[in-house]
Here is the input.
Amino acid sequence: MKHTTRIVLLLTFFLLLFSTSAVFAQTNEPAPLNIYFFWGDGCPHCAEEEPYLESLKKQYPTLTIVDYEVWYHEENQKTLEEFAKVLDFEASGVPVTIIGDQVWIGFREEYKIEMENAIQAQLANPTGFDAGKEVSSQNSGNIVNLPLIGEVDLEKQSMIVSTLIIGFVDGFNPCSLWVLSVLLALTIRSGSRKKTLIVGLTYLLVTAVVYGLFITGVFTLLSYVGYLKWIQIIVAVMAIVFGVVNLKDYFWYKEGLSFTISDKNKPKLYKNMRSTVMDSRSILGLIGSSAALAVGVSLIEFSCTAGFPVIWSNLVAQNKVSVISYVLLLALYMLIYLLDELAIFGVAVFTMQASRVEEKHGRVLKLISGVIMLALGLVMALNPEWMNELGTSLVVFGVALACTVLIYFLHQKVLPRLGIYIGNGLNYPKKPKKHRRR
Here is the structure.
């Protein structure tokens, strides 16, 4: 019995000794440390800093350099913006070096001492702050696991929701709907369903291609310069201006500044549409004249339709989506954008009767687009991050829709009963004529 007790005590002693040694070994071993290095291919200051960082790796074996090339990799640009958000700094250029919670933009000789001091401070504190882990934890918070669906990134869903809503509202553009309805009405008069089908399809296809190229051009431009603060301010101001002007057009249609097809351009458009419809050449000739008309109309309509594409392109550019994601989002935008026009076209071909877009329809469409543009412009000016979250983006669109309904109800129902008339859109009661006494 005594022999067994001695063996147990001896084993316990060795286990305690081994555990203590392991603890001391872990305590004495330096903790791993990440340095986050954002650079650009061709940046001279970045190239100057790289050898210094390599020398630090030799000096501190537990050091890891996590580098991101940001000039030619959009995903890395987004990562830099996430770090900037966590550490509250503006990524105005490269190189950007992050150690713990300290940030260096650019590279100078005096930065070397500061960086080494930061490294030593972090190594002395194994539980110190790691910006990369903070970014990862925030990103994981945007992902939820739904039954039967799996993991869903709410940030990406917000972009899809924004694309659906903006594309849908943009599709109800009074300028493009007016041109399409007039063109179909003129074509239907020929009595040929085949001609109506050819002219309508060609017109819709070509205008969609031109519109898509315009959006892609805006997106490409904003992808390169959109990170600049003053560019964001310009886009926000432009959205607010477009929103205010469209809102004005609901009350005072075509008075003063107005993003509509001007009356001086309409006779020329009528002439071009008639010549297209009267084209008695081959099918290829009819397609060619319809395509030429579509290009010309698209150029005239740009001032009327440019607002939402710029706003949407800015939202997508700020999300730093990949090329494939952009193509898919653009395809979704164009599909939703064309839904109403395809519906009008389908009804016209099937019934050989064209719908007519009147001024009262244009006013309501201007009200809807104006309020939504104004809301998006204010959000971009105050806090663009709201549009990157599904919940807040839905709130923005919901509030805009509620304001639209409220304005329409007050203007059309409540105020007239109180004898208050705003704008030139209502049939005001005529004042009784005063008869002079003879």
